[in-house]
Amino acid sequence: MKRSSTNDPSLSLPKGEGTKPRFHTTDGPMWNLLHDKAIHMRQNPTQAEMALWQSVRVNASGYHFRRQHIIGKFIVDFLCLSKKLVVEVDGDIHDYQKKEDEERTNFLNENGFKVIRFKNEEVLGNVDCVVEKIKKYLELSEPSPLRGELERGGIHILFEDNHLIAINKKPSEIVQGDKTGDEPLSEKVKEYLRKTYNKPGEAYLGVAHRIDRPVSGVVIFAKTSKALSRLNEMFRDKEIKKTYWAVVKNKPASESGHLIHYLKKNEQKNMSRAYDKETPGALRSEMDYKILFSSDNYHLMELKPQTGRHHQIRVQLSAIGCPIKGDIKYGFRRTNEDASIHLHARKAEFMHPVKKEPIIIIANPPNEVLWNFFSEKVK
Predict the structure, then answer these.
(1) Which of 139, 304, 318, 326 could bridge to 330 as Cys pair (CB 3.0-4.6 Å)?
(2) Which residues are catalytic?
């Protein structure tokens, strides 16, 4: 797969005769430039390409494939356009052009295509096994945003498409690397992407937000730089609505309410303090709450922060006399055995940053006695 000399990566809709679109993956000038080369490659396939082409034509569960198809400035080996899946067969030359392969893969990912790669020897050794792997990718190519939780490689996937992946974080995990040196969730997700999609080199993953280590629940990552840029804007503009659950010992004075405090962060102690009135250096913080269910000893609260301050939920609940179970930093009497706190990022609602479709992602709380009790009560 050799690159053309032009740098125009347009993906507009070129026209054939009249006004009917002929192709959907490049512009007219680029298509004309690469057309002869693509025809030559179709007429002179490698042994592995021919073996795979003959198999996917009859064994790909009804999905239609094109071969030596032009996308932007590249010619890809096989393309299922309906699922935006690219299959590449790498010969010996690819051992010496890893940088070019990575550039092509990144370009395709940026434009919504998934790329999987196979070596010549894989195809020639067991083409049926390769076809089965392709069928698996086809089935996973457009997962539902409400499909529930899928465990893969030690991570719990809530949602995945070509642009985003959302994970149900465990309370012991850190989102990004820190001074502890513990493996962060971001690296686990990168490894999952690298192995699942046969990516050359390191898989791209953008971190748009974080939740505290002892907190569980929804964390959204970007799979492309385009998605990350838009996610960052959405978080900054408060276009992503997040709902949390918390378990507290003390019941607030009202069943529901709107909290306003002014939070000031102590960098040395990594803590924040809440003030009732405006204070120099303190930031206005707002949050809605309501009680979902009460047991004899604990209360499940639903929390919807309107601002995203440091430790906001933990500080504001402590300020009204309702510290979160296990959160000794903000006033609870004792820690939880696993060092977690009973705060869970339950739901995220937003418009997809690329597809502009409404997305709702829901994460189940950890499998723990108290969480299980409340989850059962509010089903």
Answers:
(1) 318
(2) 212
What amino acid is encoded at 140 in this protein?
L
The answer to whether the beta carbons of residues 307 and 286 sit under 8 Å apart is: yes
Using one digit for the tens of pLDDT, what is the confidence trace for 31-74?
777 888 889 898 999 999 999 998 887 665 567 888 998 888 88
Exposure string (b/e) for 328-339, b if CB count within 10 Å is 16 or more? ebbbbeeebeee
Cα–Cα dist 358/349, whole Å: 7
| Residues 307, 313: Cα–Cα separation, whole Å | 10
Q: Which two tokens stand for residue 262?
A: 């002014």
| Residues in the chain, total | 379
- C-alpha 52, offset from chain centre: 31
**Measured between alpha carbons, how far is 32 from 27 in angstroms, rounded to an integer?**
9
Alpha-carbon 25 to chain mean position: 24
How many whole angstroms separate alpha carbon 266 and alpha carbon 334? Answer: 22
CA distance 8 to 27: 9
Residues 6+ apart with CB under 8 A from 127: 51, 52, 55
Least confident of 46-60, 185-199, 280-294: 46-60
Burial label, 186 (beta-carbon count in 10 A; 0-12, 13-18, 19+): buried
